[in-house]
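ingest -> validate -> predict -> emit
validate: passed (alphabet ok, no gaps, 196 aa)
predict: started
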Amino acid sequence: LIMYPLNVFACDPGPTQSTFVSLTFTGKDRLLDEKLIVNAIGALGNHEMKEKLSTLFGVHVVCEMIACYGMTVGKEVFETVRWIGRFEERLSVRGLKMETLTRMECKMNLCHSSRAKDANIRQALIDRYGEPGTRKQPGPLYGVTSHAWAALAVGVSYADKLAEAAKESARLNKVNDSPQQYSRPSCEATAGGKLL
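emit:
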């Protein structure tokens, strides 16, 4: 069951600094009556990000996770993975859990294609929530730039994942609560395949 408003702190990690967005989802359904409030956007050095995680409460924390796609990776990728682990450790010391989503999960959720690029993800978010706007006329996504788009994609995909899980749980509960239809027992009893 999802309790709204749903507060999400989403992170796009990097080898030396990470970008975050703090979001509040107020809608009750993924497609109907959904509203997103971007509370804060920022980029912090990883040591500062680790400290910021120590101050969070009452929020779901989700971070983009590195996934292997068969390509050679370098030092930056390993350093990023190291920091993801340090972020998760900082939260676990406080008894909190950090969820992770891969880039592929975000692509499939928002664009329904594994071939989606950053521009496609950005456009999918704009189509869903509206233009960022300008300083004089800010839109719902005002201030989201650069790596914050990736963090926003992680946060939105995580909220969608929770909403889908809640719908599936409700569907299963409805099925389990419905009256069971039993087949009528046969009047003939058998033992070892022979009629008694």
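Helices lie at 46-53, 75-93, 103-111, 118-129, 147-177.
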